[in-house]
Write a structure and sequence with these properties.
about 240 residues, Transferase(Phosphotransferase), domain 1, mainly alpha, 11 helices, globular
């Protein structure tokens, strides 16, 4: 499980910095973990993937939106760093990582709502299933730009069901537009678009599998992390 947490931490840092542990800049003792750690807390906005910053945030040096964004990004990078510590015993627990990610999301949205399932806190195995559920919903939120409390979700339609219905052909139509580059939006075919659609479909499928209503049917966290890593490699077009 500590290995799962490490992989998750590195994946989180990759997603939010746009960098990979194998990039040429990481040498002479500088790792992705150390690179991110050095940026905490003041310089985080300078190391995150530029596409994650809206034009408004990039333009303005102050303002509530920028402050909340910086707080959120700092929290997420901090989680990635804590999960990818060299020593397994010093790494953050999975449930703590998920809880802190949810808190970071609420910091960004400026409110606090709990989407934790009822089985939470009733035992070790059951609690872990609750962690998986929260992680699945968080993944769907991040990639669709929608929240379980949005007005569109009523009459039996949930974020989980919304994402499930889009699999596999319509996924590109439900993802957050900012995740799609202009090249992908313009072209109806091509290797980059194909790899992007495969990656997005895999990520949405993981989110759906983690947020199934029945706890025993949910994907294991270690499997979710492994599949996310595989999706990342699909996108990059190689496997390491």
């Amino acid at each position: 499980m500590r290995g799962d947490v490490y992989s998750f931490g590195i994946l989180l840092l990759e997603m939010f910095t746009g960098k990979r542990p194998t990039d040429s800049m990481f040498n002479d003792g500088l790792t992705l973990h150390e690179f991110a750690k050095r940026a905490l807390p003041e310089e985080v906005v300078n190391i995150v993937e530029p596409s994650l910053l809206t034009e408004e945030i990039a333009r303005n040096s102050d303002g509530e939106i920028r402050v909340r964004t910086e707080q959120c990004l700092s929290a997420v990078i901090g989680i990635g760093v804590s999960c990818s510590m060299e020593s397994p015993t010093e790494r953050m627990e999975t449930r703590d990582a998920v809880a802190k990610l949810c808190a970071a999301r609420e910091t960004f949205h400026g409110n606090r709502i709990s989407y934790v399932r009822g089985e939470y806190g009733t035992g070790g195995e059951v609690s872990m299933r609750g962690d998986v559920y929260s992680f699945g919903i968080l993944l769907l939120e991040m990639f669709t730009g929608k929240r379980p409390t949005d007005s569109m979700f009523n009459d039996g339609l949930t974020l989980h069901e919304f994402a499930k219905r889009a699999l596999p052909e319509e996924v590109v139509n439900i993802v957050e537009p900012s995740l799609l580059t202009e090249e992908i939006t313009r072209n109806s075919d091509g290797e980059i678009r194909v790899r992007t659609e495969q990656c997005l479909s895999a990520v949405i499928r993981i989110g759906v599998s983690c947020s199934i209503e029945s706890p025993i049917e949910r994907m294991e966290m270690r499997d979710a992390v492994a599949k996310l890593c595989a999706a990342r490699e699909t996108f990059h077009g190689n496997r390491i």
